[in-house]
């Protein structure tokens, strides 16, 4: 199975360095100088990491095959991928394809919708849940909100704060104007 290690961003400088949007927890291993990575689309690679550096929380690499800015700019948006065995995954880690299609339930077991997608943001990932009325709701994929992922039962349990899902679940207090749970 192919896993995305990073997505190539903008070129930096004149020597072919590019900024990466990381999708791996181990960039020092996956992106070590000399590492060869396949690309998506395949015709852009494979590429070999010539150098890697960290600067202000961002990762920058140069590839042997693209040694100038012009070449590096053609890589923007290209995915760097590896073949991986699903057995090497740590606990509490899931692949996006495992989460898509899972039923989203509240802690009482009521259906909120179905996981339609995962969005990767710098702070944390978001589960995109398609509610029964078709509305897409973005749920922060953090343990305090997504309390359980059960692949065997094909569901995720979401303990959503009031207002995250459809408004019919909310009541606005006439006295204070605060949003409250209907229960």
Automatic annotation (TrEMBL):
<keyword id="KW-0690">Ribosome biogenesis</keyword>
<keyword id="KW-0143">Chaperone</keyword>
<feature type="domain" description="RimM N-terminal">
    <location>
        <begin position="5"/>
        <end position="85"/>
    </location>
</feature>
<dbReference type="InterPro" id="IPR011961">
    <property type="entry name" value="RimM"/>
</dbReference>
<dbReference type="InterPro" id="IPR056792">
    <property type="entry name" value="PRC_RimM"/>
</dbReference>
<dbReference type="InterPro" id="IPR011033">
    <property type="entry name" value="PRC_barrel-like_sf"/>
</dbReference>
<comment type="function">
    <text>An accessory protein needed during the final step in the assembly of 30S ribosomal subunit, possibly for assembly of the head region. Essential for efficient processing of 16S rRNA. May be needed both before and after RbfA during the maturation of 16S rRNA. It has affinity for free ribosomal 30S subunits but not for 70S ribosomes.</text>
</comment>
<dbReference type="Pfam" id="PF24986">
    <property type="entry name" value="PRC_RimM"/>
</dbReference>
<feature type="domain" description="Ribosome maturation factor RimM PRC barrel">
    <location>
        <begin position="97"/>
        <end position="164"/>
    </location>
</feature>
<keyword id="KW-0698">rRNA processing</keyword>
<dbReference type="InterPro" id="IPR002676">
    <property type="entry name" value="RimM_N"/>
</dbReference>
<dbReference type="InterPro" id="IPR036976">
    <property type="entry name" value="RimM_N_sf"/>
</dbReference>
<dbReference type="Pfam" id="PF01782">
    <property type="entry name" value="RimM"/>
</dbReference>
<dbReference type="InterPro" id="IPR009000">
    <property type="entry name" value="Transl_B-barrel_sf"/>
</dbReference>
<comment type="subunit">
    <text>Binds ribosomal protein uS19.</text>
</comment>
<protein>
    <recommendedName>
        <fullName>Ribosome maturation factor RimM</fullName>
    </recommendedName>
</protein>
<keyword id="KW-0963">Cytoplasm</keyword>
<comment type="similarity">
    <text>Belongs to the RimM family.</text>
</comment>
């Amino acid at each position: 199975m192919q896993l995305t290690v990073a997505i190539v961003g903008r070129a930096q400088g004149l020597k072919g360095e590019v900024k990466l949007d990381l999708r791996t927890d181990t960039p020092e291993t996956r992106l070590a100088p000399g590492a060869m990575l396949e690309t998506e689309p395949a015709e852009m690679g494979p590429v070999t990491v010539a150098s890697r550096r960290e600067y202000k929380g961002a990762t920058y690499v140069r590839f042997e095959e693209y040694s100038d800015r012009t070449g590096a700019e053609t890589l923007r948006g290209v995915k760097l991928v590896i073949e991986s065995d699903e057995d090497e995954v740590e606990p509490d880690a899931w692949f996006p394809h495992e989460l898509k299609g899972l039923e989203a339930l509240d802690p009482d077991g009521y259906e909120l919708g179905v996981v339609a997608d995962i969005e990767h943001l710098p702070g944390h990932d978001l589960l995109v849940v398609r509610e029964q009325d078709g509305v897409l709701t973005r749920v922060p994929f953090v343990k305090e909100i997504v309390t359980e992922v059960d692949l065997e039962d094909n569901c995720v349990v979401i303990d959503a704060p009031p207002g995250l899902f459809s408004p019919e679940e909310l009541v606005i207090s006439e006295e204070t104007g605060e949003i409250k749970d209907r229960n």
